[in-house]
Amino acid sequence: MQDMHQHYNGVLVGLSYVVSVLGSFTALQFALGIPLAQNVRQRWGAVLAAGAAMGGGAIWAMHFIAMLACNMGTPVTYDITLTLASAVLAIAACSLGLGIVGSGTFRVFNLVIAGVLMGLGVAGMHYLGMAAMLSSAHVSYDGSIVALSVAIAIVASMAALWLAFNLRGTLQMLGSALVMGVAVCGMHYTGMAALELGQGDTLPSGFEHGLQGQYLGMVIFAVVVVLLAIALGLSIVRQQRRAALSI
């Protein structure tokens, strides 16, 4: 069986990092509202908003755009159900982690537990998204690199949760978002390095109905950036109103 090699579209790789940074920054902004919530409804609203920005924007959108950036040497489409399930898993994992750490006084024990759960969820999202690939190639993984990618996901998750509840100030958040973008991309491309492809002959069922398109990566980037920008604007306005009322 002939091995196949991966090649990347540099523009989409760059866009995947940009969307990860914007998603991280938006999530950090929403996380400001978690400790300030006055009731359970407000707290979980802030948790879900931050989880959606982190899981859906910083992690899943980055992952899918980066997948589309990868030329695997054979036509590839993506199963719609598994792709959507991977997005839901990422959002749920990030929301769970934020909910655990944001419940009561910040504690290291909660951070570790939440980081492990969130990291496993993020890694699960990645490999579920990989399972969504529909192509004639035979897919296998290098177990040691898979383990490394999971470890990176857990450490990155702990760092993200710590930053979400210990940072104040726009410049600090921007710097942290830039670092988080590197961490998220690092996890993804480590996971991609674990992928081993062999030349196959038969296309799987559902191939023709899978997600595909020459400009799909750029379309997803544009849509997600617009949604994150709107969410970020609403968050900033809400913070300004809260500050005005407290004067």
TrEMBL record:
- Please report a single Pfam family linked to this protein: MHYT
Domain MHYT, chain residue ranges per copy: 8-198
**Which PROSITE patterns did the record assign?**
MHYT
Q: Which InterPro entries did the record assign? A: MHYT_dom (IPR005330)
Q: What keywords does the record list, in alphabetical order?
A: Membrane, Transmembrane, Transmembrane helix
Where is it found, in Gene Ontology cellular component terms? membrane
Which parts pass through the membrane? 12-32, 44-68, 80-101, 108-133, 145-165, 177-195, 215-237
The UniProt record lists the keyword Membrane:
yes
Is Cytoplasm set as a keyword in this record? no
Q: What is this protein called?
A: MHYT domain-containing protein
**Which organism does this record belong to?**
Dyella japonica A8
